[in-house]
């Protein structure tokens, strides 16, 4: 229409053309008055085109291609997956690029485990990796030191402090055997064993009745990102790199060697133990033949030899430039590297990312011009401690802080049935709106929302204080509002050689409809965040969440500690959120009335985008300063609280200090959080005090 009218206007006006021009101008004026937002209906049209472009068969094809070979970070097959993504993006005419880093990775060279039983039968060599998976890396714990020990095994359940207390046996000089599932990460399990004097740790996963000969690989490093460039992005050449002997580097690795065990091998060893009987409270829900915890009389001869080496990793990006606010970014990320074939972890997410690119390119060719810029991100070396995403976040910290609207993460898109979502709370309402629009992949005629809300324990949005996927650097270091989406949890082939395309097609998602659902949710979230003229953020929800945390904390704490600083800062935050809500209503009215609100709207969007940054604190969490977010982050003891990590740590830390000092430390952490909430409040208000 624009072309036609300009043609008319540039030709020499005859009376007829003048009349036609007038008529068109009149129609235009009428249209603008009565339908001031053609973009509104446009937006819905594009959302509908997006939803109708779904295809389970393309996703399954991408997954098959991605999982042809194991693709461990730093190896050739994984750099081939990078090329595959680049080719895919360019075949869709999406501009793409990579960023490479040289980072410290870790690989196994040799391992062995022999059991010497007390009945003097000849020593038994135990398998330390899956049978018949020759191209898959041998099971190991990345960054475990090399070592060789000949010692008695002791079983310490999940390896938590309460487990060592319940055990009542000295584990000094012993090999500690632990099972997964007690809320501790691998590195924390090993750290506690080390503190109790163990000489090595073997960890198994007995969560399933099947696949009991699988070995769960994983890294055992503390913190995130490249250990040789802590806090700064390590470019390929010429950037500062610490030496392997540096204390900053060494303190991130355990001092005793460790290995994964299969549940089958663990059974063999554990059922041969004598010593103390298994404590009563470990026996519940414990499907093993273990009757005694040791130490011994069986002896284990365990050797692990690994190498740490600097290897090149690559992040891959596709960029869809925004038309009106190209300097505001919506980031969608998934990691690409896998321990093995990685059909679930992470290729189900990578297949979804590839399919999103396909669907976005369909939208582009139907005339879609996103308002803001969308970046599809494929991270490398997540399995080694979120290295690819962390290096990038560190490199781009200032731009992320001032221009990233949100980060949407998908790691394992599909692990099985059931929808799960986590987010920073200002995105809660958007998530609810979006999942009402996406079909439930497992039941006819209902939405993802319907099933999720009806499920026992469902209707529950998780928070992002965990450090187990690439949202961690975005939320906990950069303060970017974020979402994490997935189907299913606790799948039995996690990090084993059995995480293959066939497992997915047989058990994880036989019709690839769960993949379709995750892709739909991921894409719709991106469309809303990229296209809504006013950002779909809701800080009332954040205020409620903070209120809830305050209440839980207040019930937990000693009367001598005052939570008043929190109470009043949260009240202020809530009233700012309410004011913003009112302002937004007004702004929408003006917008609908066709008034010029560009500057106002931009200012409001910036406030909505930047408020999350208020929760960051320059000093970070004590003892782990890289973690800057004072509401969401990893506490030392995840059993205690899953929010306010600084306060949680001061509570657990101070168990060993004197009463006065103890109260003072907790009180100080409460004040720090209160100040962070005040900073978020003034960012939300957008005004100086
Ligand atoms: C010795 O004990 C181990 C472990 O309990 C068992 O697997 C093995 O069969 C025993 N050997 C003999 C000869 O009894
Ligand atoms: C333990 O295993 C290593 C490597 O297989 C071997 O060299 C060593 O002799 C064994 N030690 C004992 C006490 O059996
Ligand atoms: C796609 O979904 C349809 C309907 O559920 C199903 O019949 C078909 O087998 C699926 N395709 C793949 C590749 O799973």
UniProtKB/TrEMBL annotation:
Specify the Peptidase M28 domain's residue ranges: 315-502
Gene Ontology biological process terms in this record:
proteolysis; regulation of meristem growth
Membrane topology, as annotated: Single-pass type II membrane protein
Under InterPro entries, the record lists:
PA_dom_sf, PA_domain, Peptidase_M28, Peptidase_M28B, TFR-like_dimer_dom, TFR-like_dimer_dom_sf
Q: Which family does it belong to?
A: Belongs to the peptidase M28 family. M28B subfamily.
Query: Which PANTHER family does its entry note?
Result: GLUTAMATE CARBOXYPEPTIDASE AMP1-RELATED, N-ACETYLATED-ALPHA-LINKED ACIDIC DIPEPTIDASE
Protein name as catalogued: glutamate carboxypeptidase II
Species of the source: Cicer arietinum
């Amino acid at each position: 229409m624009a072309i036609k009218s300009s043609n008319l206007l540039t030709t020499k006006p005859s009376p007829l053309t003048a009349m036609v021009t007038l008529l068109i101008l009149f129609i235009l004026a009428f249209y603008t008055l009565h339908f001031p937002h053609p973009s509104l209906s446009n937006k819905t049209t594009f959302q509908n085109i997006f939803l109708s472009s779904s295809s389970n068969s393309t996703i399954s094809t991408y997954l098959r291609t991605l999982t042809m070979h194991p693709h461990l970070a730093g190896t050739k097959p994984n750099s081939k997956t990078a090329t595959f993504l680049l080719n895919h993006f360019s075949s869709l005419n999406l501009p793409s690029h990579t960023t490479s880093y040289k980072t410290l990775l870790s690989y196994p060279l040799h391992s062995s485990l022999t059991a010497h039983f007390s009945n003097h039968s000849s020593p038994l060599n135990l398998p330390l990796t899956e049978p018949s998976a020759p191209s898959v890396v041998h099971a190991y714990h990345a960054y475990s030191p090399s070592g060789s020990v000949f010692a008695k095994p002791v079983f310490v359940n999940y390896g938590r402090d309460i487990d060592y207390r319940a055990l009542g046996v000295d584990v000094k000089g012993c090999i500690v055997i632990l099972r997964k599932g007690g809320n501790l990460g691998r590195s924390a399990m090993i750290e506690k064993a080390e503190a109790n004097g163990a000489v090595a740790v073997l960890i198994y996963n007995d969560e399933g009745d099947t696949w009991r000969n699988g070995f769960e690989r994983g890294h055992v490093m503390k913190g995130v990102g490249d250990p040789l460039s802590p806090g700064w992005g390590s470019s390929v050449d010429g950037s500062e790199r610490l030496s392997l002997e540096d204390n900053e580097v060494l303190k991130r690795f355990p001092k005793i060697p460790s290995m994964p065990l299969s549940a089958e091998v663990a059974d063999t060893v554990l059922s041969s133990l004598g010593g103390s009987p298994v404590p009563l409270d470990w026996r519940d829900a414990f499907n093993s033949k273990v009757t005694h915890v040791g130490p011994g009389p069986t002896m284990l001869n365990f050797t692990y030899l690994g190498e740490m080496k600097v290897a090149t990793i690559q992040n891959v990006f596709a960029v869809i430039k925004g038309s009106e606010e190209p300097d505001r970014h919506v980031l969608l990320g998934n990691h690409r590297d896998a321990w093995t074939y990685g059909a679930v972890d992470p290729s189900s997410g990578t297949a979804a990312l590839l399919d999103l690119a396909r669907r976005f390119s369909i939208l582009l060719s139907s005339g879609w011009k996103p308002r803001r810029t969308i970046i599809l991100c494929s991270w490398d070396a997540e399995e080694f401690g979120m290295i690819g995403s962390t290096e990038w976040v560190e490199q781009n910290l200032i731009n992320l802080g001032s221009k990233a609207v949100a980060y949407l993460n998908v790691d394992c898109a599909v692990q099985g049935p059931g929808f799960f979502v986590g987010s920073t709370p200002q995105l809660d309402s958007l998530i609810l709106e979006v999942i009402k629009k996406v079909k439930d992949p497992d039941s006819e005629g209902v939405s993802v929302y319907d099933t999720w809300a009806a499920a026992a324990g469902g209707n529950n949005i998780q928070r992002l204080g965990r450090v187990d996927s690439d949202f961690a650097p975005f939320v906990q270091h950069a303060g970017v509002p974020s979402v994490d989406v997935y189907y299913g949890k606790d799948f039995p082939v996690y990090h084993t050689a059995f995480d293959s395309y066939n497992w997915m097609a047989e058990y994880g998602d036989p019709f690839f409809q769960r993949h379709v659902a995750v892709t739909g949710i991921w894409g719709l979230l991106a469309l809303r965040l990229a296209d809504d003229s006013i950002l779909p953020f809701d800080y009332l929800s954040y205020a409620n969440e903070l209120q809830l945390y305050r209440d839980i904390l207040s019930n937990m704490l000693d009367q001598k500690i005052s939570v008043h600083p929190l109470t009043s800062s949260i009240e202020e935050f809530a009233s700012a959120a309410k004011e913003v809500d009112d302002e937004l209503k007004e702004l929408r009215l003006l917008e609908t009335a066709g008034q010029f609100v560009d500057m106002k709207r931009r200012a409001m969007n910036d406030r909505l985008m930047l408020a999350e940054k208020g929760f960051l604190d320059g000093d970070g969490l004590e003892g782990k300063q890289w973690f800057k977010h004072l509401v969401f982050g990893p506490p030392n003891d995840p059993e205690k609280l899953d929010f306010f990590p600084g306060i949680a740590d001061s509570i657990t830390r101070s168990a060993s200090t004197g009463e006065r000092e103890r109260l003072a430390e907790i009180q100080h952490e409460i004040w720090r959080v209160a100040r962070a909430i005040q900073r978020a409040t003034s960012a939300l208000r957008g005004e100086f005090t």
